[in-house]
Each structure stands twice: as structure tokens, then as C-alpha cells.
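Narrative progress, year one. The postdoctoral researcher (J.K.) led the effort to move from monomer predictions toward full complexes, under supervision of the PI. The following entry was the first complex the group processed end to end, covering 722 residues in total.
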Amino acid sequence: MNDLQFRDPRQARSMAATLVRLVSETGRKVAVMHVCGSHEQAIAKYGLRSLFPKTLEVIMGPGCPVCVTDLPEVDEGVLIAAQGARIATFGDMLKVPGSVKSLADAQASGAKIDIVYSPRQAVEIARSTTEEVVLFATGFETTAVATAAVILDNPPPNFSVLSAHKYIPPVMEIVAEMPETRIEGFLAAGHAAAITGSAIFEPFVARHKVPVVIAGFEPNDIMAGLVELVELIRAGTPRVVNMFPRCVTRDGNLRAQEQLWRVFRPIGGRWRGIAHVPNGNLRLRDEFAHVDARRRFPIDLTSLWDYAPPALAGQCICGDIMSGIRNPNDCRLFNRECVPESPVGACMVSNEGTCKIWHLYGGVPDLEASA
Amino acid sequence: MTAILLPFTSGRVTLKQGGGGRAMRTLIEKLFVRDFAAMSFDGLDVGIDAMDDGAAIRIGDDWLVITTDSHVIHPIVFPGGDIGRLSICGTVNDLAMMGATRVLGLTCSVILEEGFPLDSLEAVQRSMIAACREANAPVVTGDTKVMGRGEIDGLVINTCGIGLTRTLVRDNGLRTGDRIIVTGNIAEHGLAVMAARHGIEFEGDLVSDVAPMNGMIDSILSDAALADAVTAMKDPTRGGVASALHEMAAKSDVGIVLQERSLPMTDAVRSVGELLGIDPLHVANEGKALLGVRADAVDQILAGLREHPLGRNAAVIGTCGAERRGSIILDTGFGRRLLAEPDGEPLPRIC
């Protein structure tokens, strides 16, 4: 098999050796955070944790959009489905528990749910029917751009959007300001930065004095990103470094940014399990009220409140896990009451969730690399 | 008793419980196996509680092997085959995986939806006949039912097979030191069906591997020395190689170290899997077998398999050991990690 340079195991091993040297030169244990499910997936998929030095902790932060979708947002989708509208959403959303029901529960009792792979597919469904079709839109700025594009492209009148889109930069501020935080640097997601540009992280670095390195998603992209990040930590020179220049520029994709902010406005809101995040939620601007499902359908969340929330939910520590304070093995539900077949928290639902990824790859990633 | 309720939290059966993974196994174990297993009898050497590919009943010096399989697939015609070919091959292969490469007879039970086009039915029947000839396996009895429009989705075919063998091969006989062979390129059936279902077009061929393997398996088992060296067999259908290996490892109480870079697959499968975010190890095959073989016979068996047209790309992909018994350790070439046991098909209803 021919290896792309991004997938050459020999290069990966050589960078792993550099990581060992750099971390030992700091004379302490180092913790860094990435904020992207795709980074965690690549780390897990290629078994990279078995290459990392034991003194380097690579923590997944709030990088799973499905996981941070708040209970009331799921409830809104369930209530709209109960009114007979077809809900189009991404597969991961199906099993995320709401206060009472998940969309999968709603589907089992008759609600019409379509799994789509892109916002455009939801528009196609709307064009093929006279029924109301509601895109339950989740995802960070990367996906929000795709939602904005279809909203600007004259969707049919029976199409609307329930936006649960979230915006990453504000939540990094929250994590950096948490008093318990041990995070000395951030690995930023290359695809998000391709839209926002690398410059968006400059004020953050100036405020918090921690480096941000933008990295791609191939195994050696991640290894190279970590080497750069640990080098910046060792040298005590916090700045933004773009290690994904084949996709990311300083200014980003200006046309996408223009579409994003024409359609959405950032407002404060809860991220599930984490905190109220100022400017962390993306909602439709007033001029797009006609495609805003929140204005098209009556939504009375109190109608769900007759039911008690699931008892186990109180013990779920998804929030602490996504904040990087604890890991799944610190949770007494992990791999016991909380498994993918019957998830308690959203981190066990989504393929981007830390608990699901750790569950799939065996819990403690403590396997030694082979010689 | 809480465990029995776990998969039933919505109170209804979900598609995942037919996906070939853990959810399905839990459903079967909790609901069907326990009480039926209590009805065992003398001579039933492999019963329902073994959850093997079929049952084996001792008759004199031979074992009578019985297996049954219901086939639903959408679309019913896909690149490389159709539901007719699948319904014959699936059952012939389940028999072959237990060593019963000579098929005494098959049953064929067809349930049709009112309005199903007769020309499609004839095409299905023709491909069943062709597959029967390939496998040298006659259909000896059958049944037909028609249900009202909307009461069933098009066409369901159940086949049952019986065969005789003197070499009974189980899925639980792996030992430390055994090598794992896969008989060819993986993940072709599942991805071909998914592409056909969603109308996804790719450059390059994505064709189902659906084929009867009894001839290929017989070429190994008919040599007594080689047959002795085969410690376990299983066909990696729903849930793919990952699911089948987990089952074999757990039942045999060994750990398996799998070399990801040794897995045979076409470039088309590799890139489509990556594009869709689907691990080829989790995707169904319908013409591939996993064999556990003694280390000292691995070269001979590999050479034997490669002589057969269906086994040309056979490869050694792993080794059984004592580390992490019941688990599969995947060596990615970068590092090592545990391989997930799929808990539901990445897509509903592949076969």
C-alpha cells in the first residue's frame, strides 16, 4: 500500500519521539485540548494515543455539536414532530435524549423523521412533498454555513429550519476561564478554521496567553500539530500557528463568512452540560423569520414538564468531560448504565462524543504501540 | 432482570436489533435462546445456545447440519447479485462454515407483496437456479404466501439448508498462536448495496461478492491434514469482519491482534468507506470466510485457498494470543487500539 505523506507511520513515530523530548524538556505533565470530534476520531482510529508520551494529556473538549445540543432544543424538535411536520436531521441526533423523549422515541411512536447528510438534501425532500419539512440543524460554524446557503437559495415555502447551530470560539473562552482548567494549549479544527480564518484566534491568544495551533485531520497532521503546540508551550511563546495551510488562510473563506452572518446572529445560550455560553448559539435573523421553525410552529415546552426527567441523568458528567476537567473513566455510569444501546448522556450517543469514542476503542487507551 | 429491558427502552423493536451487532445478539439471547436451549436432546452437539451458523446433530459417524436464514434487501437487485442469489448463497455458506460443504437440500419459502411484478419474480427465480447450480445445492421443497399491499415490503425469501459432514468446524475453536485468514477482499457486498440503495455513483467497480463458498471450503477440508489444521470458521456477513471476529474471540476465549494494513480490499472500497465514514471492517460480506488455522499449516492453507477463483486474494490478517481475551486489538501501523464491536449495522437491512 502506498502511503500518503500524511499517513506515513514512520514519520508519525519520528514525531512521537520529538513529542517525548519536548514534553520532558518542560519538566512537567502537559495537558492540551482539541475541540473537534473529528480530531478525536482520527486519534482513536489510528491508535495515536498509544504513541503519545504518558506525560502528555490530549483532552477532547466541547467539540461534538450533537453532545452540546441542549435538552430543550431536542424537546423543540420532538414537539414540532408531534404536530405532524417531517423532521429532517443528521443521523447522530436521532438518539440524543431530550427532557422526556428522543427523536428516535418520537419516530417509534409515529413521528416522521428523515435522516439527511446535508441541509440541501432536506430541501430536496421539501420539494418532493407538500408536507411541512423542518431541518433540525445542528453543528458548528462549518455546518451552519451549509444551512445558510440553502436558506439563501430560495427554499420551497414548506421548508423551515430549527437551528441548534453552535459557534466554537466563544466556548473556548469559557474553557480557558474555568478555574479548574489545566489546559496549556489548544488544537483548533482545520475545517472550521478554513471558514473563519486563523486570525479569529488571535484575540483569544492575546487574552489568555495560551497557544492555538490549527491542524488537519490526517494522523500526521495531528502529530505535527501537537509537536508545534508542545514546542510553543515549552518555549513559553503563545501565538496562533496555522499547521493546515493547504486549506486554511489567515482571513478564511470570506464568502462563506458573509453568508453565515447574513443568515445567523450569535446569541447566548446553554450548551448541554457545560454552561451558558455568551454568543455560543446561532439563531436565524429576523429577516429570515419565514424559514424559522420557532416562529412557524407553536412550541410549548411546559407541555412536556409533567414527566420527570430520567433519574440517571443527574449523575451524568458529560459537562465536566467536555470541559476537560474529567474523563469518561471518572464517570460511574460509563460503560455500566451508560452504553451506546441506552445512552444517559449525549456524549455516548454521537460518533463525535468522547464517551462513545472511548467506548468504541476500549475505554482506557492504554495499549502499548507494537515494536 | 434489568438487562433484558436494556434494548427495549422504547418498548418497541428497533432496526438496530436486526443489525448483526451486540443489540441483535442481546435480543436473541434474552428472548429466544434460553428457553429453546432447554429443549436439547442427546446427539444435538451444536444447538441454538451455541449461536453458531447452524445446528449439528450427530447421526452415526456424520453430523447433520441445519441452518435457516430469511432474506430481505433493498433494492432487491444490486450490482453483483439480487435477493435470489443472496438467499441461496447465504444458506449454503452457513452450512459450509460448519464444514457441511455437500448440501443435501434447501427449502425455499417466499412471501410476496400483492402487486409485486411477475417479471421481477421470474428474474429472482432464475438467479436462484443459477446459484443452486453453482453450489450444487438443490431446492427440494418450498412454500409461497402473498400478503396485502403494504403489509410486507416487496419480497421476503427464507431458505433452510441441510448438509452432512464428517468434519464439523465450529466458530469457537481458536487457540493461542492460531492465524486468522480472510478468503478475499472485504466489505464489497455491503458497500455495493448501499451505493445502489442511495443512488451513489463512484468511479471504479463496487460489486457485491455474493457467492457460494462451499466449493472453496471443500478444497481445504477434503484434505484431512489441512482440515485438522482449521480450528474455526465463520462468514463475516452482517456486522462485517469486526463482528464475526469478536464472536469468535469471545467464544474461543482468545484475543486477536489484527493487522489493519494486511486487510485485502479494493481501492474502490477503501475510498468509498473513507468518504462515507464507514469502517470496511464493519461492512457485510456475502462471499468471504474467516478461518482460524494452526500456524504450521497457514502457508499451505493460504496457497490452497488462492488456487480457487473465490480465494485469489486470501490473506493472513491476524494472530490469536492471550492478550485482551475476547477483544480484537487493531494494529493500525501507527499504534494499537481496540476494535469496536459494531452495535448496529451502519445501514439498515443490508441482507
